[in-house]
Amino acid sequence: MTAQILALLESSENTKQVLESLKQSGHAILSCHNFAGAIEILEGPLTIDLIISDVHLENGGNVFDFLRWVRDYPKSATASFVLLSINPTRLAKYLEDGTRMTAKLLGVDRYISMETFDACDFRQQIDKLLDDREQSKKKHQHHGLKKRDRLNDRTVGTF
């Protein structure tokens, strides 16, 4: 499955590594380095399937405020959301459990923390998430058809 992915990463090195890894799976990736750029992309014409964001951004806001905006904005509300921490600081490691729990409560689909970036592992995790998302969509569509058929069976007939 080819997905439209938005990568919101401050570090140019991390951005390069993530883009190279995901391009190997054939995904289309847009990248930006701040919340304003991400919001501009999300408000644009493309439908984004997945947002990958640094956990600890230092560009005027916090990732949880951004996540709430994403979930409240109708066009991006159903996008999968991944938080990524590469080479976390000591403070980030100390706060990780609380950050991970808050992220889950706010609707993050996956939290990935890596001491050093492992392109293969990262790509596998993202591809699995996207495959699971696609299977879930198909299951819901199939379930919706079955339900609609049952409703039609009840409405067609003699009165």
Based on the model shown, name its key terms.
5 helices; five-stranded parallel beta sheet; 159 residues; Rossmann fold; disordered C terminus
Descriptive notes:
The structure is a single chain. This protein has 159 residues and is an alpha/beta fold. The protein has a single domain (4-155), classed as Rossmann fold. It is 52% helix and 17% strand. The chain contains 5 helices and 5 strands. The chain has helices spanning 12-23, 35-42, 63-72, 90-105, 119-155, and strands at residues 4-8, 28-32, 50-54, 80-86, 110-114. A 5-stranded parallel beta sheet has the order 2-1-3-4-5, with helices on both faces. Strand 1, helix 1 (12-23) and strand 2 (28-32) form a beta-alpha-beta unit. Helix 1 packs across helix 5 (119-155). It is globular and about 45 Å long. The termini are far apart. The model is unreliable at 150-159 (pLDDT under 50).
Topology:
Elements: E1 4-8, H1 12-23, E2 28-32, H2 35-42, E3 50-54, H3 63-72, E4 80-86, H4 90-105, E5 110-114, H5 119-155
Parallel strand pairs: 1-2, 1-3, 3-4, 4-5
Number of domains: 1
- Per CATH, what is the topology? Rossmann fold
* Helical run tally: 5
Radius of gyration: 18 Å
Coarse structural class: alpha/beta
CATH A-level architecture: 3-Layer(aba) Sandwich
User: Termini, distance in Å?
Assistant: 47 Å
N to C succession of SSEs = EHEHEHEHEH
Beta-strand segment tally: 5
CATH 4th-level superfamily: Response regulator
The dominant shape is globular
Please, what is the average pLDDT?
A: 87
Q: Largest sheet, order of strands side by side?
A: 2-1-3-4-5
Binned strand content: 15-25%
Query: What's the CATH class, please?
Result: Alpha Beta
